[in-house]
Structures are given as C-alpha cells and as structure tokens.
Amino acid sequence: MADLSPATITHVVAPSAGWRCGLRAGDSLMAINGLPLRDAIDVRVYSSEFELSVDFEREGTVHTCRVRRRYGEPLGLEFAEDLFDGQPRVCRNRCEFCFVAQMAPDLRASLYVRDDDYRLSFLHGNYITLTNLVDSDWDRIEDQFLSPLYVSVHTTDPAVRVSLLRNPRAAALLDQLHRLAEMGIEMHTQAVLVPKRNDGVLLDRTIQDLAALYPAVRDLSVVPVGLTRWHASGLRTYRDAEAGVVLAQVLDWQVRLRERLGIGFVYPSDEWLLRARASIPAMGCYDGLLPAMVENGVGMVRRFLDTEESLSVALAHLGQRQTWVTGALFAPVLERVARSFSRETESQVAVVPIVNRFFGASVTVAGLLTVEDVVHGLHGRDLGEAVVLPGDMFRGPEGRSLDHRRPQAVAAELDCPVYLAYQDEGAADTAGWTVRAAQGQAVDAGVV
C-alpha cells in the first residue's frame, strides 16, 4: 500500500469517543486499531468497534490512546480533507455537455476539478459515472457496504452512452448497476438530457431499464443540460415548448410507475416545470426522496413554497421597502411570494431578476450569479432599505462568490444594507430560513 498522508483533525465534537480520548484540533490521525486510514470512510468503518486504539501525531510525536466507545457514540472527528491522500479520482470521460468544462477562466482551482470518485459519492452524494472503477474499488464497495451511491446514467443505451461520455467503458452501465444491486447497494440516479441526443424514445428506455432495478435504484432525476457561453459548438438548451413535451413524458411515466412500484420513481427537475409554466407538485409527490434529489434541482421550488412563512418572518423586520434578488428562471415564483409578503406586512418589495452576463444568459439559477452581475443589475435603482441576496451565491472559500468577492462588496458599491437569505439544512419539508447581514452576523429577529 502506498504511503498515505495522515488526516489533520480540524474539530473534535464534545462529547464523543474522540473527545474522551483527548484528541484535539491540529492532531493528525494515523491509524485505528492498527489499521492505516485512506480516507474518512475508513475512519467511520474502523471506529465502529467498541474497543478502540487510536494512533495520532501531535507536534511531531506519535501517541496512542485507548478508549471504549459507548453504544451509539460517534468518534466525533472532523478533518481538513475527506480523502487523506488529497487525490480525488478524476473523470476519464469527455462529455461535451460537462458543466465543469464550460467554466470561465481564472476562477478558483476547485471549480475545475472533475471528480468521478465513488468515495465522494458515498460521503457527499456526488454523482459518478462508474467508468473508472477497478477491481479493488468494487471489492471495497462491497466489503465496506458503501451505500447509497449516486450515479450519472444519462442513458441506458450502450452506444448512445458511449457517444455522450466519449468513453468506451461507458457501455457497461447496466451490468454495473446489476452488480451493485446484487451487493445490496442503493442507488440514486440522474439523466442530464441533451436535445435530440438522449431524450424521446431513449428516455423511455432509460426510465424503463432503471425502474426494472427498483428498489436497488431508488429514483431517477431528469435534468435539462446546462450550458454556459463557453459550451462546445453544436449544443443548445431546451426551448420552452420542448420542455413541456419532456415534462409530459416524465409525468406520464410517474403515473404508470406509481401504480406499479408505489412511488413516482422518475422526477423532473424544477427547470422543466418553470419553463413549461406548470403547477408545482405537492411535497407528497416526491415520495420522501427530496434529500437525495435536491442537488439536481428537484423539488427546490416546492421546498421554498412550503417554507414561505418562515422566510416572511425572517425578512419582515428589514424595513418597509426591500429589494429581493434572484435568477431569471425563479423570478416569477418569487414575485408571487413578494406580492403576498407585501399584502401581509404592508411593505413594498421589488423582485429583480439578474441576467447572468458572467456565464451567459442561458444560465438562470441564482446560485451561479456573481457580485459583478448583481451590482450591474441593481445599479441606478431605488433599492429601499435593504437588498436581500440568495446565500447560495457565496459558497466559495471565506464566503466568496464565483468572482472572488464577498457580499460586503455589494453593500459598498450600492451604498445600501445587504442581507443574505439561507434555507437551513434539515428535513426537506421543514427547513426554515436564516437571514444574515453582509458582515456575517445573524440578524436576531430573522433567525427562525
């Protein structure tokens, strides 16, 4: 086995077995019960024993502590990196529609990493294609029961999948899914649709093939391709009328599969619904699967609407005149919420959809807006007493946006108080909202 860099501990939860062991931030975890650690998965698996011998390095000296883990007690350690060798498995495919390959130049380095790592799929729900697995990976998935995994399918037609991924190994998908199913591994899947490439009858086949593997395959998210202004030639996004056709196809399959499987199984991302101007399904239509699908843009509008009251409470104290910022696609939904908020609070709210000049106007989601575009879109407007931005804009290191800027820059350039709205993590249908000032502190009256 290659030498592995030890894991640096960044936080020790108290109380926990690691806390009782005397571990602290800055220590480097070396081994558990004499077993070297490749990543956070090994830590999770090896620390499941009740009798633990933990080797760690502190200030250049290796120590060993022994602790008896109580029933249900976690080891309680957080690390600087989940992969202790610092090397995620990179994607070997060359998909024309890969969003990472369409990134603007000169962004932070992490945005250009095309990971295709089954370990990160298990730990964080990253979607993988299964095209770079070797025998030892399959053995580890089975031995450590790495379930669930998240799989980018796109299509189950072997020839079409090879063409889409530009990788001959992509043809083995169905055999791989069957193998995972035989191991008892649960899978969440996605299909990114490209017009005239993997939709229509090919989408029918994909849905049918994956539904045949239920319950091992738990769900399928259907997502339209996203293209920036740096996309490859020959590609395009879906037109609104085409979105309506795909949506009708998916919803028809939902009806049939609900009768057969007891769940809808295949779920359209919100973009199809918004482009087709369709009604938003009730929370129950997502069959309790939103936590696995929300990163695909499935159910986010329903989740927002079901927590509208929490958002209203969080924003009510910010003043009688407010400006709410969002992306172009979500603006009609937010405008309806703003009208209701204005009636209830006797306030004035202006919803401003921002055109994404940075990535291109076809990129319409709020989380991919830049500070530069927001400032450009708001310049010269009467902004009232507060500007409210989506917190997802600032998910970079140190709370920075995609163009490396902090929310304070918006406040400074517009000379107006700026607040960030975050939907709290938690159950998909109950998570509330928190509003924070651009300076970073929570606004007391806005924490719900």
Characterise this structure.
There is one protein chain. By secondary structure, the chain is α/β, with parallel strands linked by helices. 30% of the residues lie in helices and 21% in strands. The protein has 15 helices and 17 strands. The strands form three sheets. Strands 1, 2, 3, 4, 5 and 6 form a six-stranded antiparallel sheet that branches. Helix 14 runs parallel beside helix 15. The longest helix is centred in the middle third of the chain and has 22 residues, at 240-261. It is globular, with a radius of gyration of 24 Å. The model is unreliable at 441-448 (pLDDT under 50).
Label this structure with key terms:
single chain, 448 residues, alpha/beta, six-stranded mixed sheet, 17 strands, 21% strand, globular
Largest sheet: 6 strands, antiparallel
Sheet/helix structural class: alpha/beta
Globally, the shape reads: globular
Helix content: 25-40%
Describe, in short, the structure shown:
With 448 residues, this protein is α/β, with parallel strands linked by helices.
Please outline the helices and strands.
Blueprint: E1 7-12, H1 17-20, E2 28-32, E3 35-36, H2 40-46, E4 51-58, E5 61-68, E6 77-79, H3 118-124, E7 127-128, H4 135-143, E8 149-152, H5 158-165, H6 173-183, E9 187-193, H7 201-211, E10 217-224, H8 240-261, E11 266-268, H9 270-275, H10 290-293, H11 300-306, H12 308-315, E12 321-327, H13 331-345, E13 348-354, H14 371-378, E14 386-390, H15 407-414, E15 418-423, E16 433-437, E17 442-447
Parallel strand pairs: 7-8, 8-9, 9-10, 10-11, 12-13, 12-14, 14-15
Antiparallel strand pairs: 1-2, 1-6, 2-3, 2-4, 4-5, 15-16, 16-17
